[in-house]
Amino acid sequence: MIANHWGRAMDDMTEVEISQDGYAPDNDRGAIRLELERLRQEHQDLDAAVMALQAQADANQLQIVRIKKRKLILRDQIAQLENRLTPDLIA
Question: pTM to 2 decimals?
Fold first, then answer.
């Protein structure tokens, strides 16, 4: 289970275009939402994996650190996609 998650390529995020008003086009918004859901699920799965590993007496610390690093990368990807859905507005 763990290898399937943190072993993926780091840049497997779905690429979408942004319209001139700063929002993703409607057809891409659905793709962004699906990708967000997938990334959030993977993040939750990794969180559960870290907790399970930490509960073991002989936990592999290197593996835990790698999973946590992958979680941080996922968090950044999630933030980028969320920003595409709701861009900053200039006042």
Answer: 0.67
